Amino acid sequence: MSSNAAKSSFGQTPHFITDIKLQELEKQRLAYQAHAKVLEQAKTLGENGDILEKVEVLAKAVTSWTGSGTLDYQQTVGGKLQLKNLEFWLLQAKNDPSFSRQIAEGWAQTLEEHIRHTTMRFDSAKLFGNLFNEWLTSGDSVALRYQAVPEDVEGDVSEVCESDAASAAFVEVGRKELYEQKEKFTSIVFDDYPVDTAALTAYLEDLFSSDEAAKALDNLRKDLKNFAYYFQRRPVTSREVLGSIKSLLASGLMDEEKRTTLKAFQENPTVVQEVASVLTMRLASLESWAWPKEGPPQV
After folding, report:
1. Helix (H, G, I), strand (E, B) or coil at 148
2. 45 close to 57: Cβ distance less than 8 angstroms
3. For residues 280 and 235, is the Cβ–Cβ distance under 8 A?
4. Residues 6+ apart with CB under 8 A from 254
5. Taking a C-beta distance cutoff of 8 angstroms, is the pair 55, 85 a contact?
6. How far apart are CA 93 and CA 87, in angstroms?
7. Is residue 261 exposed (0-12), middle (13-18) or buried (19+ Cβ within 10 Å)?
8. What is the CA radius of gyration of the chain?
9. What is the distance of C-alpha 262 from the center of its chain?
10. pLDDT digits (tens, 9 = 90+) for 140-199
11. Please, what sign has the CA dihedral across residues 87, 80, 40, 35?
12. Dihedral (CA of 207, 211, 212, 216) sign
């Protein structure tokens, strides 16, 4: 395997990362458009005089969003509305006849402005992405010019393209155990395995039939739910990406080209940070994730 192939893989990575980020942003933009329809429901509630219910609906919409720009109960909306205290204020407002309606209307306005602002952020990101892609494909991009005619390549451009095409058509044969493990993994994940679901269900029900076991199972479910909630909202760090790269390099499951590319990643903090950003976006949109139409990527 030549070093040129590894350099090519590394050079394509920034473009790949950009494409992924723009795809994820578009998915989140469309998802948030649907999410922001709660404004129509809130408007109806406000017109009917249900101001407190309007605030509850808007607050739920703000805190339930798990994509880019997500907020939790520890954060403040609009610099003035603290979400962790809003629930108690609403409870007081429902039970205190002297509670000012004007205050509740201020809460609703703050939450509505946050939702509209987030919608505008996604629209602006889409506009920037379109402009960026247009710039990349216009021929004005230095990166594209470099890819089209590398500085260290001599000769006619058509010869370079033919050489690249020949290289792309070449498939390097990796180690035997790599293919064996890949084939085994594919069979485990994608091949149907007959399972007696009725017998399995009966076994599990009997296993957790006692009060103590049922309580332990309930606690486990709550712990997993809480862990998943915060894990999905926690950003992936560069340190975690570097740790994953080290584990992949130590596993010996990748061919030499990919190992060389990963080593190049290790030495480039910017790329590591971008990979972490993409993983964070993918994790945030996990509920809308699906296999690509062309199938899983070949490793």
Report:
1. helix
2. yes
3. yes
4. 178, 248, 262, 299
5. no
6. 10
7. buried
8. 26
9. 21
10. 555 444 343 444 445 444 444 444 444 444 444 456 777 777 788 787 777 777 888 999
11. negative
12. positive
